[in-house]
Amino acid sequence: MESKESLTMPVNEQEVKDSSRRIFLKQSSLLTAVAFTPGIAVKAADLHVDEEIAAVFEKMPLKMEVNGKPHNLSVEPRSTLLDILREQLDLTGTKKGCDHGQCGACTVHVDGRRINSCLTLGVMMNGKKITTIEGLAHGDQLHPMQEAFIKHDGFQCGYCTPGQIMSAVACIREGHAGSEHEIREYMSGNICRCGAYPNIVNAIQEVKNGGQAI
Amino acid sequence: MKQFQYVQPATQQAVLEVINKPGTKIIAGGTNLVDLMKRGVTAPDKLVDINHLPLKHITSTPKGLYIGALALNSVVSENKLVAEKQPLLAMALKSGASPQLRNMASVGGNMMQRTRCGYFYDTAMPCNKRVPGSGCGAYEGVNRMHAIFGASSQCIAVHPSDMCVALAALDAVVIIAGKKGEHRVPFTEFHRLPGDHPETDNNLPFGELIVGVEIPNNNLQKNSYYLKVRDRQSYAFALVSVAAALDIENGIIQNARLAMGGVAHKPWRLFDAEKLLIGKKASEESFQQAAQLAMQGAKAYGHNSFKLKLAPASITEALKHAAGLV
């Protein structure tokens, strides 16, 4: 099994930048939190007391398989699958959009079914197999749906794209990509505020008509 | 989200042992509950996960069709027995939520979901359903989505489900398990009107568990339709929805079922309009008469006045679709 470190090891300059950006964001949000909390909490944060306080709350064991790799985790009951993927497993491809099940940016597959990971409690995923956007490609070879999204310009800003692609793959596997109308109906749980919908539909139709096993 | 304790009792009996304590909530799909917990609308001390209970089956019974409370909305909507025996239910389910949410949401959870009234969700606002006695923000506030039937001065919220509208129309029965055994409640009597206690959505006894629903056999397969009118074509709650099912022989209506969603605190069954239709010709004229009768007692609260026109037009349209006139 590949270690968590090797998964997140920067491999080129861009990734180094990306990863520094994430670390910066984490640190700056901590600083912001500190700036707005009372003095005693600042002192506590200095002494890492916050981490000790967190450990007092009951954590539960969670065994799940993510993109083919087994994980043994310890999670708070209130942690969502989305937060566990992003914050504990560093799988930040799955996006947090609305965080209330309204936008679809957090779509992942659980035992083959697409779901909203933001409304899924991690503790309820014990023994489940999760597939995220990171699990679709085979090494450098993109999944046909990823290729099709690039070819058809199925995105502008790209924020909704991981959720769109996970949903699109499920849409075909479920047999709900028979027509443009059906695709639009069965992709309605994924919102794209850039409005790339026509291109997303084209991408899905191409993969569907290509007939490859996805 | 407030901290809570998470438990997963091994059996139904063990679940019943723990759910009769205040501050305890059952979680199935969690699509509504987790959202409400994130927003601080509800803050249980203990969550009881029931997903491992054997309540997922969909089977034919001598009386009809039995659907376990934990059957997923997506599974029920695609099930062959459901398509064959109760196509109205499949159609209603497919019109609800999104594919992702239907893959999580259970039949029992769909019944137990709370209203989507904005004042219920906004903890800075008054809401008698969330905090009894705090007032109703919607009564004189933004009430475009709200009830036109059966509301009270305490609450004008609507029940948001599509599935429940179909189950009410189809005379389904809810099977409930308690410590003393199982009992059955007609679906139309499961949800309640707000009255002076809008904090109570339904008549599920405290500490008991929905285990399934049963839909009696009928002859309504050929002529049924679920019409959902909403602000966008897909993935939106109903402004008004209509479940319509007819048994037509030689152009004459033998049996009729009608229920509306998006108009009341519970799925709104239209018994009088159904009676009026029986023995009548399946025509637009009969349908308009039924729609007119169905609107007796309707009351709007300002922003939702449009529903007084939209609802009867939707009833007529749904019946035309059911009868194959469209």
TrEMBL record, chain A:
Superkingdom as given in the UniProt entry: Bacteria
All residue ranges annotated as the 2Fe-2S ferredoxin-type domain in the record: 60-136
Gene3D superfamilies documented for this protein: 3.10.20.30, [2Fe-2S]-binding domain
Coiled-coil region: none
Keywords from the named record: Iron, Metal-binding, Oxidoreductase
Signal sequence interval, chain numbering: none
Pfam families reported in the protein's UniProt record: Fer2, Fer2_2
Listed InterPro entries: 2Fe-2S-bd (IPR002888), 2Fe-2S-bd_dom_sf (IPR036884), 2Fe-2S_ferredoxin-like_sf (IPR036010), 2Fe-2S_ferredoxin-type (IPR001041), 2Fe2S_fd_BS (IPR006058), Aldehyde_Oxdr_Iron-Sulfur (IPR052914), Beta-grasp_dom_sf (IPR012675)
The protein's name in its UniProt record: Xanthine dehydrogenase YagT iron-sulfur-binding subunit
Lineage: Bacteria, Pseudomonadati, Bacteroidota, Sphingobacteriia, Sphingobacteriales
From TrEMBL, chain B:
EC number assigned by the record: 1.17.1.4
Keyword set includes Cell inner membrane: no
UniProt keyword Repressor, yes or no: no
Record keywords, A-Z: FAD, Flavoprotein, Oxidoreductase
Pfam families: CO_deh_flav_C, FAD_binding_5
Cited InterPro entries: CO_DH_flav_C, CO_DH_flav_C_dom_sf, Diverse_Substr_Oxidored, FAD-bd_PCMH, FAD-bd_PCMH-like_sf, FAD-bd_PCMH_sub1, FAD-bd_PCMH_sub2, Mopterin_DH_FAD-bd
Domain FAD-binding PCMH-type stretches: 1-220
Example GO molecular function: xanthine dehydrogenase activity
Enzyme class: oxidoreductase
Domain of life where this protein originates: Bacteria
Protein's UniProt name: Xanthine dehydrogenase YagS FAD-binding subunit
Organism the protein comes from: Mucilaginibacter lappiensis
